[in-house]
Each structure stands twice: as structure tokens, then as C-alpha cells.
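Contributing new records

If you add data, match the layout below exactly. Sequence lines come first and carry their own label; structure lines follow with theirs. Keep one chain per record. Anything else will be rejected by the validation script.
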Amino acid sequence: MRRPRPRRGKAPLDPIVVALRHAGSIGNLEALAGIPANQTDRTRFWEPFSHLPGSAGLDAGVAELRRRIITAGVTHRTVEFLRAKAQTYRDIDGMKYWDAIVRIAQAQRTDLADP
């Protein structure tokens, strides 16, 4: 009788970690951080980092976006983002994994006043 293989390297079931890992673009990070998608608000966010040389401004801006996402905790935006990613990645990572992530995210929401 063969022993089952040990499970390797499944990502932790922390919704914030999963959302940050799967953000994939600056626009997704901005959305998760609560930056409105209009050009004025995006410019207002990135302006303080524009004086930094080379890629330092981008790195500092991304670090600030990540800090805002982590500070806010699991919000309605996070849950919706994870639901959308679940539709894309279920075939790759497995349906149970993504269902668990979304369920945990819903349980950990910090902004229950939002829809």
C-alpha cells in the first residue's frame, strides 16, 4: 500500500497574503488599497514619490500601497478581489483552496458596514 505524498508548499490561508501575492499589477494594488481609479486620485497618490530617482519612487509607492492594504485588513474590496481571482485560479490551485480563502476573508472582514 502506497503512502500518500506529503503536501508541499500550499500558500498560507491568510487572505491579505494571498491578495498581495495575486495582485499582479499596480492598478490591482491601488484598488485593494482603496485608491479611486480616476486619474486625479491616482496622481495625488503617486506625486509624493515622483521626486525619487529611478525605480526608487515606484518601490516606495508600492511599499506604501502594501502598507495601506495590510493596515486596512480584510475589507469588502479584498473579498471581491479574491472572489474574482478564485474564478481564474480554481483550475490551477484547486477549488477547495480558493473556497477556503474566500470563506476566511469573509469571516475576517473589518469593514462590516460596507456591503
